[in-house]
Amino acid sequence: MKLEQSIKVENLNKTYKGNIQALDGLSFEVDKGSIFGLIGPNGAGKSTAIKIMTTLTRADSGVVRIGDYDVNTEPNHVRKIIGCISQNSGVFREGTARENLILQGELYGMRGSKLKTRVSKLLDNFGLNEVADRIAATYSGGMLRKLDVALGLIHRPQILFLDEPTTGLDPEARSSLWEIILSMSKQENVTVLLTTHYLEEVDRLADKLAIVNAGKVIAEGTPASLKEALNEDMIHISLDSKTELQTDVIEKALSSLRNIFRVEIDGNIIKLRVANASSTLVDVLQVLAANQIHVLNTSIIPSTIDEVYLKYTKK
Ligand SMILES: Nc1ncnc2c1ncn2[C@@H]1O[C@H](COP(=O)(O)OP(=O)(O)OP(=O)(O)O)[C@@H](O)[C@H]1O
């Protein structure tokens, strides 16, 4: 069954002055209520895509639909249903968190008890109650970023755009911010599109991701499906340290097997990069046993999203 889409990007092109091509046929779709990661090297075109999707700039050609609206012909409708957190903070540093949130709500036409209740809920959910009445200039980087995201959510957007939201935060602040974003997106059924250079974040958080390079999507899928498609896991085999290591025998024995891309012998551990790890491990153990090489234990280490990313972006 095809899910309802919140974002549809079709064949987007954008060339900046000086003939700098930022987007070259970028296309992808984001399911409603899901978390979607756009990853790619510096200059791949992620921020440009976000600027187009959030109506801050226009594409030269291509179609973008945000919810039920077209960014070119209905930008005002788009702006009402999205929240954006850009790389630069939008917090007014001389105001408190509460004042920032009230001001932002008023900009969206919210007033009275409705606004007050929303501000209290966001201060609560983002753990900003204690500092709510202190000016933002005194906040830590983590608190400022939380306030930024809270500002983006004040008007209950359907779709939240986060451009590198956690850059510069320490691991604890990053994980705490993500926990809140995840919980808010589930509570309020918000679709989240994020860009980040922290690949383990998209691996853990994103339902789907797209790898962008030179302005186009070069790979797309769930983190698990992309890793599976890479089909390059590691096998580590520990050998008995009491027996003398016969490197040449091991290398010769393993060279008869298919599915092994790389063999490295590190002390008493044989490290193999392989395809079809489970069945290859069975073959490896048989070959080692036939050569009287005694194995103590084995482990399969699945490939990471970093490896998927490097494979596609290094091409
Ligand atoms: N306003 C602009 N004028 C001219 N060139 C631009 C402008 N904005 C971006 N570019 C260029 O367009 C290309 C794509 O940039 P963009 O910022 O969209 O990439 P990105 O993937 O977001 O990179 P990063 O990860 O560094 O934020 C780059 O070559 C960049 O130098």
From TrEMBL:
Pfam families: ABC_tran (PF00005), DrrA1-3_C (PF13732). It is found in: Cell membrane. Residues 7-239 form the ABC transporter domain. SUPFAM superfamilies: P-loop containing nucleoside triphosphate hydrolases. Coiled coil: none annotated. It comes from the Bacteria. Signal peptide: none annotated. Keywords: ATP-binding, Nucleotide-binding, Transport. Its main location: membrane. GO terms for molecular function: ATP binding. It is a peripheral membrane protein. PANTHER family: LINEARMYCIN RESISTANCE ATP-BINDING PROTEIN LNRL. Belongs to the ABC transporter superfamily. Drug exporter-1 (DrugE1) (TC 3.A.1.105) family. This is ATP-binding cassette domain-containing protein. It comes from Tissierella carlieri. The lineage of its organism: Bacteria, Bacillati, Bacillota, Tissierellia, Tissierellales.
